[in-house]
Design goal:
The complex is a heterodimer of chains A (about 160) and B (about 300). With about 160 residues, chain A is an all-alpha fold. Chain A has a domain of about 110 residues. Helix content of chain A is about 90%, strand content about 0%. Chain A is rod-shaped, with a radius of gyration of 59 Å. The model of chain A has no long low-confidence stretch (mean pLDDT about 90). By secondary structure, chain B is mainly alpha-helical. Helices cover about 70% and strands about 5% of the residues of chain B. Chain B is globular, with a radius of gyration of 24 Å. Classes of the chains: A mainly alpha (about 160), B mainly alpha (about 300). Chains A and B meet through helix 1 of A and strand 5, helix 3, helix 4, helix 5 and helix 7 of B. Chain B: This is ATP synthase subunit a.
Chain lengths: ~160, ~300
């Protein structure tokens, strides 16, 4: 158990190993471990986030589905209403058109009748004049008796 | 038998020493003849007495070799693990290395309240290296010396931590770091103040002047006691453990019954020693951390 140069040798050896460990071993190991730790933490975070996202997405999908169902029902209802309205409107239009046509036909008929009456009246007055001329044996000056004839025609 | 036992024990406790024998030194050869050296010679010591006579310039080849070899082995293993370290899933030995690193990192963070890039790797080196050196204690005491004996090596002490030079060397390195960081963090004034102004101080400058040498004496003793106790604690534990293994090994040559009893004792002591070697490595590391933490503390 002699104290000798082994003491110095051990100090030098120790210093070399500590330097080596500090330079080449410790930083690599620790940084790799910390990186992995971070990676795992990130992974867990991401998993949590994905789960939450999935939940949210499901909720959203469900609500959208519900909404779209409601909307669809509303649209169908509206369409039905609109269809009824269109039918009603068409009916109304047809009715008024029919009425108008009938009225126009009636007016035309009346006009036609009036014209016929007028014609008849004219012919009557001419016949009357002709008749009278035959009876009197001479021609009657139509112009001279125009007032009388018109009066007669009006009476018819 | 008694003389034989003593020789056996003494043989096991002698290091393989390389050093210089002075001119005129009389060597006692194995066959009883004597050789007088005509000039100073660098040589391997053949006896315990020669090893002692070589003085300070001698070196324990076995302690140095095992200590360096084991340190290099563990550093190589950890270096390889560090090179392979990635963020991928660790396997096998990688796991073990990372577990050790994490354990030491946690211990350092808990006990060391400063900022230092040195303390954690230093702790890892101490823990793994001292553990490896202590671990040699678990190899049956005669195995390696017998193998080396076949190659003509006289002495072989395979547990470096049973060599007081090794443990004190490490403790002195830690001591140097303590002094270095004390001065670096607190300045020379702060360090000297720490040594001279505690534990006694007074308002009166005259009384204070009287206290300074007293304080200096007390604090110096406390300071120097740290590396001495650090080194001797490890040495003492391992030396005592080794001694018991050697004593148990003596029983193997004392008949069947004693041999069987020795086997049981050997097994029991080895199992107990697994705890001791780990604990001693941990204590050495822990005390180093604590001492360096104290050196970093600024009052």
């Amino acid at each position: 158990m002699n104290i000798n140069a082994t003491l110095i040798g051990q100090i030098i050896t120790f210093a070399i190993f500590v330097w080596f460990c500090m330079k080449f071993v410790w930083p690599h190991l620790l940084s790799a471990m910390q990186e992995r730790e971070k990676k795992i933490a990130d992974g867990l975070d991401a998993a949590n986030r994905a789960e939450r996202d999935l939940e949210l997405a499901q909720e959203k999908a469900a609500s959208q589905l519900r909404e779209s169902k409601e909307k669809a029902a509303e649209i169908i209802e509206q369409a039905n209403k609109r269809a009824n309205q269109i039918i009603d409107e068409a009916k109304e239009a047809a009715r008024t058109e029919g009425a108008r046509l009938v009225a126009a036909a009636q007016a035309e008929v009346e006009q036609e009748a009036n014209r016929a009456k007028e014609d008849l009246r004219k012919q009557v007055s001419e016949l009357a004049v002709a008749g009278a001329a035959k009876i009197l044996g001479k021609s009657v000056d139509a112009a001279a008796h125009a007032e009388l004839l018109n009066k007669l025609a009006d009476e018819l | 038998m008694a003389g034989n036992s003593q020789e056996y024990i003494s043989h096991h406790l002698t290091n393989l020493t390389y050093g210089k024998l002075p001119a005129g030194y009389v060597r006692h050869n194995e066959d009883g003849s004597e050789t007088e050296l005509t000039e100073a010679t660098w040589t391997m010591a053949h006896t315990k007495q020669e090893a002692a006579d070589m003085g300070f310039s001698a070196i324990h080849v076995d302690s140095m070799g095992w200590s360096f070899g084991l340190g290099a082995l563990i550093m190589f293993l950890f270096w390889r693990a560090a090179k392979k370290a990635s963020t991928a899933v660790p396997t096998g030995f990688q796991n073990f290395v990372e577990m050790t690193v994490e354990f030491i990192d946690g211990t350092v963070k808990e006990a060391f309240h400063g900022r230092s890039a040195l303390v954690a790797p230093l702790s890892l080196t101490i823990f793994t290296w001292v553990f490896m050196m202590n671990f040699m204690d678990l190899i049956p005491v005669d195995v390696l010396p017998s193998i080396f004996g076949l190659f003509g090596v006289h002495f072989m002490k395979v547990v470096p931590s049973t060599d007081v030079n090794v443990t004190l060397g490490m403790a002195l390195f830690v001591f140097a770091l303590m002094i270095f960081y004390s001065i670096k963090i607190k300045g020379i004034g702060g360090f000297v103040g720490e040594l001279t102004l505690h534990p006694f101080n007074a308002k009166n400058p005259v009384v204070q002047a009287i206290f300074i040498p007293v304080n200096f004496f007390l604090e110096s003793v406390a300071l120097i006691a740290k590396p001495i106790s650090l080194g001797l604690r490890l040495f003492g534990n391992m030396y005592a453990g080794e001694m018991i293994f050697i004593l148990i090994a003596l029983m193997f040559s004392a008949g069947a019954f004693m041999g069987l009893l020795g086997g049981v004792l050997q097994w029991g002591w080895a199992v107990f020693h697994i705890l001791v070697i780990t604990l001693q490595a941990f204590i050495f590391m822990m005390l180093t951390i604590v001492y360096l933490s104290m050196a970093h503390e600024d009052h």
